[in-house]
Amino acid sequence: MTVSSKRRSSPAFAKAGEDRQAGPGPVAEEDRDADPASVARAIVLRQLTASPKSRLQLERKLAERNVPEDVAAAVLDRFEEVRLVDDAEFADMWVRSRSQSRRLAKGALRRELADKGIDGDTADSALEQLSDEEEEAAARHLVERKLRPGTDLSDRAERDKTTRRLASMLARKGYQPSQAFRIVAEVLDAGAGGAAAAEHTYEDHADASAHWE
Length: 213
Fold this sequence. Notes:
The chain is 66% helix and 0% strand. The protein is built from 12 helices and no strands.
């Protein structure tokens, strides 16, 4: 079989047509001199079939496959025209999914969106669907779930240690330090049954929160 015949029979060559469904697997090395636009379309279709992607994510994938920048831009422009690539829709989906599955706060979600090439205005619009009340409810759920059974909240040292651990966990989820310490204190207070203890713990850790900013 000649090299030309191998190319015509390869999976990547067969899947590179604009209107064909792209199957799994990378584009074969032997097809790298095939029509760049067709190969680029096949790559984009495979990526979108696996999961929604932002334009920047697709640009990075095309660059990894050595697709020329001008070809990648033209192909992605066309995908945007037909709404198969839509950063606003992607951002909305990302916020809904990550806020529910990972209980991330707006700060963490904003950083993730920026890493995927979503501009500030588009991110702001997507984040509007997550209310402050929902964000705090998610934080309380996390604290309650991560609070170890049998923790002696009447013991000052153990309570302080638990507070720092849980507040750090919320910080990693994107919650602001003051918000994290307040929510933790309120949840621990509900568990211990003492409002005074919660207020005392929150005041003790107010200065410590400055180190996170």
